[in-house]
Description:
Blueprint (H helix, E strand, L loop, with lengths): L12 H17 L10 E2 L16 E2 L2 E2 L1 E2 L2 E4 L2 E4 L5 H21 L5 H11 L14 H19 L7 H6 L7 H17 L4 H7 L8 H11 L2
Parallel strand pairs: 1-4
Antiparallel strand pairs: 2-3, 5-6
Helix pairs in contact: 2-3, 2-4
Amino acid sequence: MYADDTVILAPSAQGLQDLLTICESYAKSHNIIFNVRKTKCMCVKPKFLADLCVPAVLINGKKVDFISEQKYLGYYVTDNMTDDKDINRQIRQIYTKGNSIVNKFKACTEDVKAELFRIYCMNMYCCTLWANYSKAALKRLKVAYKTVFRKMFNISTKSGSTTMFMLRQACNPLDVILRKSINSLRNRVMTSENNIICAITNSTFYLDFNITKEWTQLLFAL
């Protein structure tokens, strides 16, 4: 509870305020002071309630600032629940790390380059959480991934993307990385013994979640 990544979730402003009041009581009895300036609040509203006025949220009598986006544990959370912001983060990361490797290790063997590419460019952190994104954002990510790969191995743009990945051992296309990552997380979720996760996966709402539909689409669609 002392970590900077502590999050409180509530279905309403009043519910959130009640939880914060409990936190205030706990902090007072344990000589803890919450930093209001470092505390942020995000309100996620359905489209038909976009103009809904949200009351102020207080900690120790001081207002907490509202934000529309926040980087949380490396993933961009937005109040409109879209993933384009986080996909753009991944695109920047691929170009930054990829171009750095290309410049520093251009004289290395292809085996070394392939290993570096697997370590620094194939790790699509948080990609399993993407469930609401534009086709344009995903296309930009695929272009970035292929572009860095071509530059690293000096491959002509005339070469087919499938062939160029097949010729480099264990360097997978982006679609394969997404499916493997999703399958891994999905299996851990479905076999988890955590009571909260079990309650979610056993609920009638689980199959209607956007992320569940996205997983099903990518893993099982023909």
